[in-house]
């Protein structure tokens, strides 16, 4: 009888370790995908030198469609929060990301904030897991 209890305990510990490792891998994959999307949006803005152009917005939206950025879609119509007193410049309401423009003496730079969210079964209605990843472009010089 003693051996059956210890075997059950070892089996339970193995299941818990596998569950923890699976959770870490799951969150790591979501984080890396969101980080890649943030980097690509920054690259598109730096390549074009602005976000205020419709072709840039179209290019970003096309990329988000091909990257399958659907886990963080803005289904509730939430607007971007203010950051350092600045309102977000993006007008793409289908995706949950925010772009802020900062003016400096040399030019302007943009801050990109991309959100990742997880919809967990059963507890997803009670606990909202949403995180953001923020990055800045280089200063885009204005002559």
Task: Please characterize this protein's 3D structure.
The chain has 143 residues and is an alpha+beta fold. The protein has one domain (2-141). Helices cover 42% and strands 20% of the residues. It has two helices and four strands. Strands 1, 2, 3 and 4 form a four-stranded antiparallel sheet that branches. Helix 1 (2-48) packs antiparallel against helix 2. The longest helix has 47 residues, at 2-48. It is elongated, with a radius of gyration of 21 Å.
Topology readout:
Elements lengths: L1 H47 L5 H13 L30 E7 L3 E12 L10 E8 L3 E2 L2
Antiparallel strand pairs: 1-2, 2-3, 2-4
Helix pairs in contact: 1-2
Class computed from helices, strands and strand pairing: alpha+beta
Helicity, in percent?
40-55%
Domains, number: 1
Q: What overall geometry do the principal axes of the alpha carbons give?
A: elongated
Number of E strands: 4
Strand portion: 15-25%
Q: Element order, helices and strands?
A: HHEEEE
Give the integer mean of the pLDDT values.
81
The major β-sheet equals: 4 strands, antiparallel
How far apart the termini lie comes to 82 Å
Low-confidence stretches: none
Number of helices: 2
Radius of gyration: 21 Å
